[in-house]
Structure formats: C-alpha cells, structure tokens
C-alpha cells in the first residue's frame, strides 16, 4: 500500500482501506451483535468504550496486521493504542428514547485527548457506511489549522459525550468530503482534522469501531486544570522505550513482531 503517508500528510486523512476479509466481517458482525444485545442500543450508541481490554476478539481487531500496516507508514514502527470506542448510529425508530436525530458535530479529536504528538484515528466499518446512513465527513486540509474553537452544540442529538462543536463560521463546509466505507474497510484521519457526520436517515444501523493510535514518542499533556487519564493504553507494535504511557496489555494479549 503505497503513498498512504503522503496523501495523509497532505489531506489529513486516507479513505477506503480494506482490512477484514468477508469471513472476518461476518465474525465481527456476529460478535458485535451479541455485545449490542447485552448492552442495549441506547448504550451501544457511544458507551462501548475501551472494550478491547475485556474481549480478545476486539483486541484482535486493534492489532490486526492489515490495520496496523498503514498506521505504521504514518507513525513508524513503535505504536501505542490510546483509546477505542464503538460508535453506532441507529434510525430513531429503533431507539426508545430518541433525543434528536443522532449526529456527530464538526470537531477535532485532539481537542479532547491531551496528547502532544500526532494521533491517528482508524474508523473501521462494522456496517456499510455511506452518505444515506451518516458516514463520516471530513474537511480536507483542516489538520493544518491548529486547534480550533469548540463550543457547545446547539442542535440536540450530538453523539459526542462533551457535546462540543466547531462553529461553522470558522469552517469552509463547502469542502466537506464524505468518507464512505464498506463493512471491513477503514479510513484514517489525523487528530487535528475537522470531521463529523450527519444523522442516519434510512432504516439500517451504521456502526463503526474507532481506534486511536500514537507513536511511542507522543506524550500526555500535563494540565492541572484539565487532568486526563489513559487507562486503556496498550503497546500494539514494536517496542516502547519511551514509557510515556503505561502499558495496560491484558495478560492474554501477545504483541506480534513487526513485519520486515
């Protein structure tokens, strides 16, 4: 897979990378379906956070060779998994307590993370995600603008737990670009890239698994006014000689050797 880093560094994202085979997609959908049933759809929208520490099948995804290969092209060989979350958008008819049409406001991931260094987010599709059911949209090049102002979203239904939103007068939304992905594909985007997604209008679920990665050179930002913790960090590639983040690897997880 050539030129992932070149395209990513210029645009702030890279679209449509196939990670999982058809059999792996079927297995993922079955296992997530069981997790969703046990959790309930209301909580499955945004509350399945860092479950890679609990379920080996989820850890298999975050350390999948075809997922990590393009991430290594951007971050290098030594990589820490920072955080992960399943994000599901359901049609309003499937939610018992809808609070506005679920959407994700324009935002930058790095605004919340408290990390010094590049954060690469993998958005892996559990279901097909397209413009109809609210796939992620990006504004290419906005990763060069620094951290923008975020305010509370005025429209109900924002899935971001902090309810943050970048005011649209700061953005050229005419440059918004959809990032459709089929189940088993992913896109990558920078923590500084402005992105969001519209509500799910059809009658089918749109679920994605969002995984954040950093180089072992990245550091937590020490801010006493806004302290952060990183309770789910795991070294998933190479070696970590820096030790800026604690390795919370589950006892059943073995890191794979970096291919040569």
UniProtKB/TrEMBL annotation:
Cofactor(s) required for function per UniProt: Fe cation
Gene Ontology terms, MF aspect: dioxygenase activity
Keyword Oxidoreductase included in the entry's annotation: yes
A family per Pfam: PhyH
Name of the protein: Alpha-ketoglutarate-dependent hypophosphite dioxygenase
Keywords: Dioxygenase, Oxidoreductase
Source domain of life: Eukaryota
Cited SUPFAM superfamilies: Clavaminate synthase-like
PANTHER family recorded: ALPHA-KETOGLUTARATE-DEPENDENT HYPOPHOSPHITE DIOXYGENASE-LIKE GENE A2 [PROVISIONAL]-RELATED (PTHR20883:SF52), PHYTANOYL-COA DIOXYGENASE DOMAIN CONTAINING 1 (PTHR20883)
């Amino acid at each position: 897979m050539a030129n992932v880093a070149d395209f990513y560094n210029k645009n702030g994202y890279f679209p449509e990378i196939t990670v999982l085979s058809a059999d792996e997609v079927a297995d993922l959908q079955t296992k997530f379906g069981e997790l969703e049933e046990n959790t309930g759809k209301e909580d499955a929208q945004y509350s399945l956070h860092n479950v890679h520490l609990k379920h080996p099948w989820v850890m298999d995804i975050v350390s999948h060779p075809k997922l990590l290969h393009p991430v290594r092209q951007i971050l290098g060989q030594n990589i820490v998994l920072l955080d992960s979350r399943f994000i599901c958008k359901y049609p309003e008819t499937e939610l018992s307590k809808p609070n506005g049409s679920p959407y994700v406001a324009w935002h930058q991931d790095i605004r919340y993370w408290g990390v010094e260094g590049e954060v690469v987010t993998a958005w892996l599709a559990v279901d097909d995600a397209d413009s109809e059911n609210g796939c992620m949209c990006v504004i290419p090049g906005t990763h060069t603008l620094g951290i923008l102002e975020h305010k509370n979203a005025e429209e109900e239904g924002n899935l971001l737990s902090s309810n943050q939103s970048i005011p649209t007068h700061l953005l050229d939304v005419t440059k918004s670009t959809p990032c459709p992905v089929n189940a088993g594909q992913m896109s990558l985007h920078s923590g500084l890239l402005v992105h969001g997604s519209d509500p799910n209008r059809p009658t089918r679920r749109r679920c994605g698994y969002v995984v954040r990665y950093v180089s072992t050179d990245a550091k937590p930002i020490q801010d006493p006014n806004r302290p952060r913790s990183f309770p789910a960090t795991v070294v998933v590639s190479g070696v970590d000689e820096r030790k800026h983040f604690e390795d919370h690897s589950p006892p059943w997880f073995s890191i794979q050797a970096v291919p040569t």
